[in-house]
Amino acid sequence: MSSAKNAAVVNYAEKKHSVEIREIPVPEIGEEDILLEVENVGVCGSDLHQWTSDHSWPVNYPVVLGHEFGGKIASVGDRVTGWKTGDRVVSETAAIIDPQNPMSKTGLYNLDPTRKGFGYGVNGAMTRFVRVPARCLHSVPEGLPFEEACLTEPCSVAYNAVAVNSHIKPGDRVIVIGPGTIGILCAAVAKICGGDVAILGLEKDRGRLEIAKSYGVTPIINDASEWARKRDGLGADLIIDAAGISATLKIAMDLVRPNGQITKVGWGPTPCNFSLDPLVQKNVRLQGSFSHNWPIWEKVLGLLSSGTLDVKPIIGGIWPITEWHEAFEKMHSGEVVKSILKPV
Ligand SMILES: [Zn+2]
User: How far is the CA of 163 from the centre of ligand 1 (A)?
Assistant: First the structure.
């Protein structure tokens, strides 16, 4: 097996469109790692950003893309306990952490500033075999197929933003800005939490807003002020900003009610040129949300397994990794919400 090579989607340079299929050897594993044979890997907005080179994080070129994945354990390192060959697993994304970092010691290793993830810091999963530290693993419940289980990661991003970093009560009125994968999943989780939920997009997002409707949320194009104020004229209890630009914070400050909250989960490197005074005047709490940790993954796997959270509506298709370009394009153009790849 060690001499065999497998096709991988490799991001090889900083330059725009520096992604191609390369044949790579099966990775060597350390004594605390397992070798995972990938069944499915989701394409993330961040994979697209590295492809178009408008990402804002350091990338260890050349690197295999892909951090939303699941598969079967192909071999286990000498010091790994509790896992065996053939186990069905998904992997968290924090491939490298410093266990001595104070954030790691409090269980928030996702916030360890030295952490490095699959797909940018170390080789990711858009290939047949990936090396995974055993501490990253979660068991996939029986009956949950890999094409759904591989989306545990974006679901965990949404769960952290909505159910952990936001305070949401049944009956709260929630507006999600941005109908991408994370936005739609945030809307779905807010719905599970008992919220009355709307999702805001642009004219070009019509298709994705239609998909969001299957989660029982109200799609809104361009302007959500009427929906925000229709109950008592004051605005929504919670705004989840899942758009990929920073300027939407202004919309969030406008739509939120006094004493309400804004949770920002969408990245946007451009500086804002507006006043934050509405935050002060309305006594609003602004909360960032990043990544996820072990307990969140366990909760999400439970929700996926019971069908309480259903990712099927957002899956736009499954492509062999050699057809990564089409899968990336379809997501990039907004034609599909989520593309999934399968190793060849
Ligand atoms: Zn992702």
Answer: 18
pLDDT value of residue 269: 81
CA 215 – ligand 1 centroid, Å: 20
- How many angstroms separate the alpha carbon of residue 152 from the centre of ligand 1? 10
Per-residue pLDDT band at 3 (split at 50, 70, 90): low
Cα separation, 139 vs 319, whole angstroms: 24
The string of DSSP letters for 53-82 reads T---S---SSEE---EEEEEEEEE-TT--S
Q: What is the pTM of this model?
A: 0.96
45 Cα to the center of ligand 1, angstroms: 6
Quick one: 166-288 is in which CATH superfamily?
A: NAD(P)-binding Rossmann-like Domain (3.40.50.720)
Q: CB within 5 A of ion ligand 1: which residues?
A: 44
pLDDT at 1 exceeding the cut of 70:
no
What architecture is domain 5-157+292-342? Answer: Alpha-Beta Complex (3.90)
